[in-house]
Amino acid sequence: MQRNTAAYFDLERDLCPMLEQVLAQLSEYLLTHSISSLDKGLLLNLPICSDFSKAIEDVGIFNFLAKSIDCRGKFQNATHRQMFANWLLVRGLEVSAARAVEDVKLYLSASEIDFYVIALVHGILFEDDFEALELGDGVFVSPIETPPVRFFRGYAKEGANWRSSLATALLFKKISRPRREGEGAFSSLQTVDNVEAIREEINDARLIYATQSQKGIQLEGFTTIPADSVPHWGGSFVLHRNFLGPVELNGGILERDATCTKMLLEQFRRLDRTERERLSVPLRFYNDYLSVTGPEDRAMFLRVCSEALFLDDNETGELRYRLGLRAAFYLADELDERKSVIKAVRDGYDIGSRAIHSGRIQSTKTSEEKLDHAASLVRKAILKRIETGPVDWNEIVLQSK
């Protein structure tokens, strides 16, 4: 639903000519000094830009906007004249003065605004000129060089600990929320409705994609940023402290992996919340298993993943025995195949136990093969659990005997 825009038509009369004049001066300055992109520091220090910022207040435009701009996505920073001026200049250079002013009018008349919840991740490699691929639930993956918002393009690279980032890709979801007036200038990240739920959806896509690519994908952090057409400057960033470090990169993203992820994510969403929460644990530790290279870390992550997957009914005692037995009856039908599954899963569990209790294991070709075999069975069980839903372990074992 659109609001009445009649009151905002004077923006074209008062603001557009002023912006066109300043953009002409700014373009000439950038060309003369061979500057290809704007950054925040340059805009703050150029007399052209500071004069424009003051002029906005002189014509009374910002006095009105300050009560109307929804600062959703900004982290506890008040909107001020310089932010709005910066946005107008950068948007004007990207499109045109008229289009930038039109964006302001559309924003002020809109009942909703668009913004992006974005995760910075390491472990996804793009070898070619890939466009964004959908992983399901409206979650997309893109190279970090082609983000959906300008915050990651050129002029604001110093934001969000950007210069120290190891991220190789972005996972993001675009959502719309009602625009509020009057309180927006002091809104914080938490005013984004259900931001935690959106992050959870993105995280689920990350972990399920890892089961298809069979490469670890580590999360650096999240940021929430309004769309480019929203008069705004910057975004808010939440850093994850449990980042395991750079993941070994080999092989680019495959479209078939994204397609399979989309199908699995649809099945995952159909599970009830309790089952999704249960499965999130083995998914997380399987991803961590894929992310590290040290044999001790791999063995420990795989053991925790196996326990979370096959021993999630809170029963205690005979863990090793029950883990092997449940895996065998869940994954195999024939006796010989069940025996093979029991041995493989218990071998992986034993290696993990030695790593946990001694802090070190002897890495040999045989031990690596045992871990890989056990991991392949764990992955198979995770995917089956996503497809078929909750498991009654007692029923599985009794019916199979």
What class, by secondary structure content?
Answer: alpha+beta
Largest sheet, strands/sense/barrel? 6 strands, antiparallel
Strand order of the largest sheet: 2-3-4-1-5-6
Order of helices and strands: HHHHHHHEEEEHEEHHHHHHH
Short description:
The protein has helices at residues 10-14, 16-32, 40-45, 47-58, 61-65, 81-94, 97-109, 195-213, 255-270, 273-291, 295-310, 319-331, 335-358, 365-388, 393-400, and strands spanning 112-122, 133-136, 139-143, 169-178, 218-226, 236-239. By secondary structure, it is α+β, with helices and mostly antiparallel strands. It has two domains: 6-239, no CATH class; 292-400, no CATH class.
Structure commentary:
With 401 residues, this protein is of the alpha+beta class. It has 2 domains: 6-239, no CATH class; 292-400, no CATH class. 53% of the residues lie in helices and 11% in strands. It has 15 helices and 6 strands. It has helices spanning 10-14, 16-32, 40-45, 47-58, 61-65, 81-94, 97-109, 195-213, 255-270, 273-291, 295-310, 319-331, 335-358, 365-388, 393-400; strands at 112-122, 133-136, 139-143, 169-178, 218-226, 236-239. It has a 6-stranded antiparallel beta sheet with strand order 2-3-4-1-5-6. A hairpin with a 2-residue loop joins strand 2 and strand 3. It is elongated and about 80 Å long. The N and C termini lie far apart (62 Å). Residues 1-9, 71-77, 155-163 and 182-191 have low confidence and may be disordered.
